Amino acid sequence: MRRRRVAHLVPWCGKATLLVALALACALPGAASAAEPLRIENLQVEGGEASWHASNAFRLDWTQAPGPPLVPRAVVYRLFDADGHLIAGPVRNTENLRMLDPLEVPSEPGVYTAEVWLEDTEGRAGPASRASLRFDDTVPSPAAPQAPAGWLAGHESAVLKIGHPAGSPPPSGIRGYAISLDSGGGSYPCAHPGWCSVAETDLPRGIDDDTIALGTLPEGDTYARVLAVSASGVTSSLTSVVFRSDATLPRLSLQGMPPGWSDGPVRVAAFAADELSGMAPAGPSGPFTAIAVDGAPPALTSGDSASAWVAGSGLHQVAYFACDAAGNVADGALGGTPAATTTIPIDEDPPRVLFATAQDPAEPERVEATVTDPLSGPSPSGGSIRLRQVGSHGRFEELPTQVIGNRLVAHWDSDSYPHGKYEFLATGYDLAGNAGIGSDRVRGAKMVLVNPLKTSTQLEVGFGGRQLVWHRCRHTVQGRRCHRQTITSFDPRPTAQVVPSGHGMLFGGRLRNISGVPLGGQELTVTETFAPGSQPARRTATVRTDPDCFFSLRLAPGPSREISAGFAGTRTLTRATGRSVRLDVLASVALRASAAAAKVGGAPIVFSGSVGQAGAAPLEEGLPVELQFRYPGVDWTGFRTVQTDAHGRFRYAYRFSDDDSRGIRFQFRADVKGREGWPYEPAFSRPVAVTGR
Q1: CB of 159 within 8 A of CB of 214?
Q2: Dihedral of CA 436/356/411/423: which sign?
Q3: Is residue 568 a contact partner of residue 576, using CB atoms and an 8 Å limit?
Q4: CA–CA separation, 64 vs 627, rounded Å?
Q5: 136, 204, 205, 233: most buried by Cβ count inside 10 Å?
């Protein structure tokens, strides 16, 4: 045996190899074992003999014994089906003597057996080794992933349950399931389409390993993509389900809240909105909205709204919350997010209104009432004080009223009301809008005041200073004559005064209280109201009484006018108005003749003149002037009426034609009676004399 082996090696190794082999045969005690046939030890299928392959090409590796330098001449294998029937071989492979790669089995999935041995250089076959070749390229039926019904809350862990693939499983069976997650953009669980490794199989424990916890998912839609994977790694077609997660609490609003205090029951309504899972009613287990008042059990309403009545005076706590379709709820239970709360203040009782204990002697017309309210407090705006005469049974008249803090303050202009008793009502409000009405003082007496409240005053006026002066005018043969008359007391009878044009007048009077006590140092207003057509139409001046209560004012020359004086009163004195007196001012008329003598039948005498207009508008229409004459034994007789120009001038030429006029001394004058809008009294000029000859 030893010789044949060596001889066999000679042509293969050459002389050097032969010498090495002879030396080893002589030196090694076990050299005789080289005559043993080559055998295969530790025959292995790539990926494991127990594993299934998706490809029908296998790789077999082994360990050769004895090892190099001995080498086989061929590797021989036979292939058997699952029933042990020979389906291929023996097949000799002389190219790759250290492995079989590839070793292809039939394309029909199943478990095959490979029987492999080595053949040495002398053609001797070593012992055969067997290995199972598991081939399955069957595509599994799709998995049936199941998503939970409805939405997941943000804190809720998502669980994916997978329904088993329908129909018969592949020969290799179902290794498990591969899963990927995405937000809708598409994904694939494995790196290679149609095949998944064991590491890529998320549920690798067989067909019944069908449940996996995905944890909390991001808000919105999450798609789970699922592959059923056979034991050989072949994948089914992709199936998917969507998980919907809502981690946001419903958005709440409360309507019906009063802007401040309410004067009665309040109906509030909570509204919830949720952009993801929504608030659509879905029965007892679906979304709801709830309101709780003052710690009472909440009233739950299916859907997105709930309402409740809040009643009774006081501060009421209202809590409201909602649960969306995902189960997100802010009710404060178990230490969670607390419910939204608000306070509703209700005051159903009116405030109390009372007048001040007494009037202030320094301001008797000041009427004051206090508004008190123990809950909402008095309103800083709104309120009134009204009055009416006792026994009148008419409507109360409202006074201008200010609200100052918790007080109502009104000023009663008592001078404008008749004397008598007056009863008062005050209306105050609290912050809730409740109105309280009071007619009593703080100590219980009715609020009644007797007018006049203030000390009454008297104002006497007339022409003059401390004594009244009266000008009397009368017609005489020579014309109108006026003279001055002094009245030693303020006699109320003289109410008019006539003065010539261009003359002023002293106007005065005195101010006393009802007891006759002089009121010195008081301010009065004197008003001159000029006759129509005057410029200006009105003039006022301010005077002050002296320590003896008298006052006076020099009236400037001007047109006719009405003069009055008034005392506005003070906080303690009534106002007073003196009688109105009239100052009549005579018009200013002048007449001239061109000569003192006139020849009968000769040249005419020219009469010219003017009417003064100080204080009057321009005489656009002129004034009628009646020219009059007289002679001894004959009264004044008008013989011609002329019209002035706009400046008040007039002119007329008169010719003496009657022989009876010779030797007679005539007197001529101009008489102005005025017209509407002329602010002076009728007057005539001084006479002028003309003698006929």
Answers
A1: yes
A2: positive
A3: no
A4: 173
A5: 233
